[in-house]
Specification:
Blueprint: H1 8-18, E1 23-27, H2 36-48, E2 54-58, H3 66-77, E3 80-84, H4 89-97, H5 112-118, H6 133-144, H7 147-160, H8 172-195, H9 201-213, E4 218-220, H10 231-235, H11 242-251, E5 255-257, H12 265-270, E6 271-276, H13 278-285
Parallel strand pairs: 1-2, 2-3
Antiparallel strand pairs: 4-6, 5-6
């Protein structure tokens, strides 16, 4: 699981090349393929025609009821599945249906160290352990001489570093369009409405822009009384469901809801700063650090 454009599909294709047994790959990213009938047809085809023993399915969360289909094929025929999808409640809920049959892994955005390695930058002669004081001292002294360079690269990383495809991109307009069109808008207008009953994604998009402009401000983001994930959105106008909107943004990793450190547990959960993902905020708001 992971955010869009972090390399899940690429990682699956690389893994497929290393599998010793015959394997097949299929993506449900296209809207016409997101049905249970297509899933069953694909499984039958790759099993009977391609004789695949391992099946890799990309963006599986778009197929309603996929966990029941895969459970049947796994239990009755013993096939192995490798799945990928955007991080969401839909994949999390599948753990209950596939208890004992599924292990989940999260692919986070690039770390600063990974960003530097993609740019061909090396730090020291190798990893240094915190318990090895001489090695840590040598690493510190080496990095100190390149302090300004690393500060500049860190600002670049905050601007575009989460996404491998734009690590080497220097055009700020391209970076903004990439993050806005291929990440934020696809999540708000396509991914979230396909899972939740969001009738007005334009309001959800406005909430994200507002949250981006008010990063780390305190907001009551949980409703006072518990409501069902689907029932809340149809119970009253969408623009009043601020808590649900922010939870949807967090489910798709567009925002991070941080509870206050408070003695009252319930009050801590209801109020807290909202932190948009730094790269997404920069790209969507059109900011330019240069």
């Amino acid at each position: 699981m992971g955010l869009r454009r972090t390399g899940k599909t690429t990682l699956m294709r690389q893994l497929m090349e290393r599998l010793e047994s015959p394997a097949a790959f299929f993506s449900f990213d296209e809207e016409e393929t997101r049905t249970k009938e297509v899933l069953v047809f694909v499984l039958d085809y790759v099993i009977t025609t391609l004789n695949a023993k391992s099946i890799l399915l990309d963006e599986i969360q778009y197929v309603e009821g996929w966990e029941g289909v895969l459970k049947r094929y796994y239990d009755q025929k013993g096939f192995k599945f490798i799945l990928s999808g955007s991080e969401s409640l839909d994949l999390s809920r599948a753990k209950a249906a596939l208890a004992g049959r599924i292990a989940t892994f999260s692919l986070p955005p690039l770390s600063f160290g990974e960003y530097l390695r993609l740019k061909g930058v090396t730090i020291g002669n190798g990893p240094a352990s915190l318990s090895d004081y001489p090695a840590m001292k040598r690493l510190y002294e080496e990095c100190l001489t390149r302090k300004e360079y690393f500060e500049h690269e860190f600002v670049e990383y905050l601007w575009k570093g989460a996404f491998p495809e734009i690590v080497s991109e220097n055009d700020s307009a391209v970076v903004r369009r990439y993050i806005s069109d291929l990440v934020v808008r696809k999540i708000v207008y396509q991914d979230i409405p396909s899972i939740f009953e969001v009738r007005r994604p334009d309001i959800l998009f406005g909430r994200f822009r507002y949250t981006s402009a008010c990063s780390s401000s305190h907001k009551p983001y949980l409703p006072a009384r518990p409501r069902s994930a689907r029932g809340a959105l149809s119970a009253r106008p969408l623009h009043r469901n601020t808590g649900q909107l922010l939870l949807h943004l967090q489910d798709k990793t567009l925002a991070l809801l941080a509870p206050d450190h408070d003695g009252a547990v319930l009050r801590s959960c209801r109020h807290g700063p909202v932190h948009p993902r730094h790269q997404l905020r920069a790209g969507e708001e059109g900011c330019d650090h240069r």
